[in-house]
Task: structure prediction
Amino acid sequence: MDLATGEVQALEIAAAHDVGRAINPRDAEGQLEGGILMGLGAVLMEEFLPGLSTGFGNYYIPTARSTPRMRIHLEEVPSHFGPLGAKGLGEAVTVSTAPALVNAISRAAGVRIRSLPATAERILAARGAASAAPAGPGEDE
Amino acid sequence: MTTGISYLYPASVTEAVALLADWDGRARIMAGGTDLMPALQQGRCAPACLVDVTRIPSLDLVEVRDGFVVAGAAVSFARLQSDPFLRARVPALVEAAASVAAAPLQSVATWAGNIAQAMPAADGALVAVALQAEARVVSAAGARWVAVDSLYCGPKTSTLDPTRQMISHLSFPLPGPGWGCAWQRTGRRPALILPTLNCASTVQLSADGSRILAATLALGAVAQLPFRVCAAEAALLGQEPAEVSFEQAALMAQTECRPRSSPLRASREYRQALIPVMVRDCLAQATRLARAVVWRSVSGRGRPVGKQDDP
Result:
């Protein structure tokens, strides 16, 4: 994070998921990578503004330059419910990526970020408000 | 519709502007086409003829000539980024070229086209203004060199007549000893995004490095044109190239600039807060380059060469 501008770049994300049995491990890794990027987009930039967001020219999703290094671990615990021990995979990755990133950003900023996407502007504003406000009770992460 | 358009490849700049004259307002110059093609598709312009200048010999070259760096109209942003001399001595131009849209567009979009489009925060235009670049404007009546900042008469409005004139070359003074430049940019994501704020600067230090002899500072997305902060430039003259001078210039820039709020990009307040940060960093970076480069003469051409150029 650039503390002067509030800009954030995710450098590396490690993700471990219980995927049941990975029938096609490379495909499963691809699902994880896609889910990570979707979670990253939701946290850092994606925002629907009614009347203004009309396409991908003004609804910002991550591009290659926003993509962090990814370390992926598939934890294979065959499921009793899915075919061949498999589980559905995709949504769960997005769900866990978002709070991990928000926690990382909050730690780096020194103030809890409570509205998403955590744009550079919102981060800088949160830091400004925190330094202006009297010290209150600490917040749990 | 885009059907029925004549597509011509002139062999020279003279022929290109002669074709424009022949078509009498119904032809447009075509280089990368990254702005023109969407305009055609959306029906914002409907030329009967496109005059493609990218096959005109030598128009895709970056050369050092008579104390100037000269780039032809067909020089793409990718070409600027790969030039060893620019990489060593004019990193602001290389970094600005790398900021435009994304790599596939950089490989065809041209620096001259970026300036002709007259977008207020265009990365290529902003760095050209800071480099005090001039454009060679050619029409059937002849050619003349004009300052790039004089090509702007309003947002998205160039003084150029794209149906009768073309930019054949851009040039800026050859970097000499004690000169440095820098580029800063922020946006909502790292690629394919208009800038929240962009900033280019140059500094010329005295021979002993103790004083600033000249400085330029241009900011984008703070006005309806690429904005040169003349008050800050003037305030830097004769100053020591130190943090305190940069800070003073940064605060002046903050006072002079009038950014607007854009719900898709950033609020006015955020842009105002960014200005001093970026200006200070930009000036400090330009000064570091001015001090860092080793100067020597190469094979009688008197061309200054950066460290990275050593064989």
Q: What stands out?
A: Strands of chain A lie at 12-18, 69-75. Confidence is low (pLDDT under 50) at residues 137-141 of chain A.
